[in-house]
Amino acid sequence: MRNLVVATALAAALSGCAVAPSDIGREPHMSAVGSGLQANVDKFSAYSFPAPLRQSPQSLWDDSRANFFRDPRASRVGDVLTVSIAIDDKATLDNSSDRSSSSSVGNGFDFALGSGSSTKTAGQLDSTSTSKYNGSGTVDRSEKIQLSIAAVVSGVMPDGNLIVSGSQEIRVNYEMRLLNIAGIVRPRDISKDNTISYDKIAEARISYGGRGRSSEVQQPGWGQQIYDAIKPL
What we know:
- The protein folds into two domains: 26-48 and 70-92 and 146-230, no CATH class; 93-138, no CATH class.
- The protein has helices at residues 2-15, 43-46, 213-217, 222-230, and strands at residues 80-112, 120-156, 162-172, 175-185, 195-197, 202-212.
- The protein has four helices and six strands.
- It is mainly β.
């Protein structure tokens, strides 16, 4: 019975820790090579585009030889291309609104009892409502990222566009830097040096972050996050 109580208390204590029990006392683990080749893309929606019309079998033109006199570029599953990410965005928004509404309704009546009687009754009905709202919001955001990452063609759509995905991990002591990218690339947008800018990638998914000791202390514990999610006020 005592061992059960100790185990329960230990499990409750670990559930409130920001550090995963498997990472206690060691550096963050790296993902296996090839784990970033699987793009998070719904195959049904990605491959539903109609295929381009094929050339006649009697034609001497072959699309696969279009790059015969040019530098080779990524075009097939498994090919590698370089994605250049240069983000320098700044957005400042300031919005305020003020709304007020008021209404008033009054109604009165009177009447006399009998003909020639001096008895008189009067009534009054009043209704008043007021509504006010005042809201304001400010957004001041600045992002600057400049780096390059190699991505792998993980799929070719029927219309010829390429599905690319890639990941990069760098570990320094007990901190891991993670960079993931995925999206759809048009082959003609790939430059002659086999690179493409991030702003030419459709459905781009770019993730830049990290994990490790420094990242853990910036996040509240699991117990605190659960409490924040379920507290009524």
